[in-house]
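Entry, Tuesday afternoon. Goal for today is a structural model of the target with coenzyme A bound, before we commit to ordering more compound. Inputs were pasted exactly as handed over by J.K., no edits. I checked the ligand SMILES twice against the vendor sheet because last time a stereocentre got dropped in transcription.
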Amino acid sequence: MTKLHSHGSSLPIPSFPHSLIAASPAPPFTITMGRMDRPALCVQCRARPVDPAWRPFCSRRCQVFDQARWGEGAYRVPGRPAAADDTDPSVTDGKQYQVPIIDGTIRATDLKQIKVGDEDVGLATYDPAFMNTAACRSRITYIDGDKGVLLYRGYPIEQLAEESTYLETAYLILFGELPDERQLAEWTHQITMHTMVHENIKKFMEGFTYDAHPMGVFVSTVAALSTFYTDGKQIFDDQARLRQIHRLIAKVPTIAAYAFRHSIGRPYVYPDNELSFTGNFLNMLFKMTELKYQPNPALERALDILFILHADHEQNCSTSAMRSIGSSHVDPFSALAGAAAALYGPLHGGANEAVLRMLKEIESTDNIPAFIKRVKAGDGRLMGFGHRVYKSYDPRAKIIKKAAYEVFEVTGKNPLLDIALELERIALEDEYFVTRKLYPNVDFYSGLIYQAMGFQMDMFPVLFAIARTVGWVAQWEEMLLDSEQKISRPRQIYTGAQPRDYVGMTERRK
Ligand SMILES: CC(C)(COP(=O)(O)OP(=O)(O)OC[C@H]1O[C@@H](n2cnc3c(N)ncnc32)[C@H](O)[C@@H]1OP(=O)(O)O)[C@@H](O)C(=O)NCCC(=O)NCCS
């Protein structure tokens, strides 16, 4: 696809806030150990636990402790101030530790110097779901959730969606700079030359049942690619790595289209290398008996924009999966299948389907107030609203909303659009959503577009996976070449049984 226009855009380039950006070091941070989390007494012998976070057994090493009460926090009293006469020697008190702050973060391993007992291995952080932990340094994507900013390699998403193409954006994400004419031509050529899949892949896909979920088919087939391209294991060979990147970006639309055709019982369509990346994808999806498929330019462009918007989103669930699996040095096909599996989950790639189901359930704009009332009462959620990172309007949602109108001009309006618009209007004025900073996210309108274009709902995560493939491989490569990275291996807080002797069958449950 050619670039639509290249006039100078007037979209503002945002400034960075100060935290979590590579910057000059700040003065070190001093931690003073106090006794704010004074442990409660052991339920067994009433002695005080040695270290409530790591070994919630009392200093007398009671063999029994109350697992249920542990869950209730019986061994800890978070936030309770120390009593004046509290002289527990197991709690390090008043000591000061210097912890450097670099790039708005402290290194978790710097906390290891803080020990609360002689045998202690050092303080660790507990961060389920990685709510406040940076696991890598990355140059690829920047998000400022409060301001609604998304940048790929420094370029605002609004400008890329307006001026770039998916393949050009993919080049930018992977290589860090926009390509010149020659580089773009070479890149486009490489991707186009790799769109075919081995005939055995086709046969492999034919083995799925007629009602197999296209995302299940996609995940399995991407994993199977590793058995076809055994040089995928050469992950530290620059040329071999680039070859797999070409293959993955080029072949995922083919696999996705085959999965779609399989699910509707139509023959698979081979790639047409004369068409653009997105035009060829539409060809493989929708070609019937015509000799040459001509994609509708408006739909081709709309899908290309949707692919740009979904190309990367820093350390989300599936990208973290890609990095984590890849950190074991497995081939990229296997790692990408794992990332796609993470995307399959309804909390990640499945939300736009949930939006459509919700809009259908609401049925008419008259029913919106009652629906909103139910959501506010805690009965269900307003799908397509809210985001872990964005606490203002998701910048991608604004672009998608505009693209939706362009698609509907070709396909006719999706009848659910009026409900969506009214729902958004009411929610954005409602105190419940305003105070919680709940705004439309990328999924609020994308499902409406996909449905209008003729995709069934179970194809939505597959479309997402095509676009996100470049983000996954770029993040995977960045991880591999980062000398600070090792195999991913988080720590845990053990909450299981104390050491105990094996009990023979006849002795059990007496
Ligand atoms: C995306 C999402 C999972 C983020 O969750 P989170 O960052 O963990 O936010 P929380 O679940 O802690 O929610 C914070 C508050 O807002 C409320 N809230 C969040 N999203 C809501 C929604 N979509 N509808 C109604 N209330 C919502 C929560 O009930 C909570 O209220 P409370 O403080 O009174 O308990 C969440 O907003 C959501 O479920 N959205 C709908 C699903 C969706 O569109 N997902 C696609 C994301 S791209």
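The chain is about 45% helix and 5% strand.
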